[in-house]
Automatic annotation (TrEMBL):
Residues 75-137 form the Thioesterase domain. It catalyses: dodecanoyl-CoA + H2O = dodecanoate + CoA + H(+); tetradecanoyl-CoA + H2O = tetradecanoate + CoA + H(+); (9Z)-octadecenoyl-CoA + H2O = (9Z)-octadecenoate + CoA + H(+); (5Z,8Z,11Z,14Z)-eicosatetraenoyl-CoA + H2O = (5Z,8Z,11Z,14Z)-eicosatetraenoate + CoA + H(+). Coiled coil: none annotated. Keywords: Apoptosis, Cell membrane, Cell projection, Cytoplasm, Fatty acid metabolism, Hydrolase, Lipid metabolism, Membrane, Transit peptide. It is an enzyme of class 3 (hydrolase). Belongs to the THEM4/THEM5 thioesterase family. It is found in: Cell projection, Ruffle membrane; Cytoplasm; Membrane. It comes from the Bacteria. InterPro entries: HotDog_dom_sf, THEM4/THEM5_acyl-CoA_thioest, Thioestr_dom. This is Acyl-coenzyme A thioesterase THEM4.
Length: 194
């Protein structure tokens, strides 16, 4: 069993944050934060099409069905794709804080091979916040929501301003996003004013 690097251990001044009062209700489908997102967007034919729901407290759950286009070895999911599923689920925790945050560090344990056709049942939880740093953890189970853990991850997300995307993204996509009322609505769900 591997250990977690010290960068993923919350410092002594970290706190367990409050769920935002206007966070989606437990059970609510969160929807895609961006239609072209490889993790959750419906506009990506080979994407993961991951669907996440708000859970209780500081938790979310999600499902990802492994398809032929997600293979690494014959009949098995690619590890990077599985890491993407964990990353996307962890990213959807942003909805609970109504904060925008990007992945700074993601440490993944691959414990079982995941066959094509499997449904990966994902759970993620915010453990602590220290300033802009959000510490979180996730698991992916196969064979059902109570099945064995196939993959797990610890993560550090860093809160950023919307300028992070505007300043760094390609102008075609940024301009299209800013001209899309649906995208603006989704960005506002993160208290962003594009
Ligand atoms: C109008 C257009 C709108 C478009 C937007 C639409 C919707 C937006 C809404 C939601 C989007 C959000 C979530 C999406 C959900 C899921 C997607 C999956 C998530 C991803 O897939 S996202 C892509 C991959 N991700 C990146 O593309 C990040 C690249 N990266 C950087 O952009 C910088 O690197 C950054 C910003 C991370 C930090 O840069 P920075 O300059 O702001 O801050 P700085 O470096 O000072 O770090 C501050 C403190 O974090 C510590 N720290 C930083 N990095 C660390 C590391 N790796 N390990 C350990 N500690 C670390 C420092 O040690 C310091 O700690 P301390 O405060 O204690 O000193």
């Amino acid at each position: 069993m591997s250990g977690t690097t010290s960068a993923l251990t919350p410092p002594s001044y970290a706190v367990v944050p409050d769920r935002h009062p206007e966070a989606p209700a437990p059970g609510e489908l969160l929807g895609s934060h961006y239609g072209q997102c490889f993790g959750c967007g419906t506009g990506q034919p080979h994407g993961l099409h991951l669907e996440a729901r708000a859970g209780e407290g500081l938790r979310v759950s999600a499902e990802f069905t492994v398809r032929e286009v997600h293979q690494g070895a014959p009949g098995l999911a690619h590890g990077g794709v599985l890491a993407t599923a964990l990353d996307e689920t962890l990213g959807s925790l942003n909805w609970l804080l109504r904060a925008i945050a990007v992945t700074g560090r993601l440490e993944t344990d691959f414990k079982l091979p995941v066959p094509v056709g499997s449904v990966l049942h994902l759970e993620a939880e915010i453990k602590a916040v220290a300033g802009r740093k959000i510490y979180s953890t996730a698991t992916g189970r196969i064979g059902g929501p109570e099945g064995p853990v196939a993959v797990r991850a610890d993560a550090l997300f860093i809160q950023v301003k919307v300028e992070h995307f505007i300043d760094n993204g390609r102008s075609e996509e940024i301009n299209a996003a800013m001209n899309d009322p649906d995208q603006v609505r989704r960005a506002r769900a993160f208290e962003v004013n594009p």
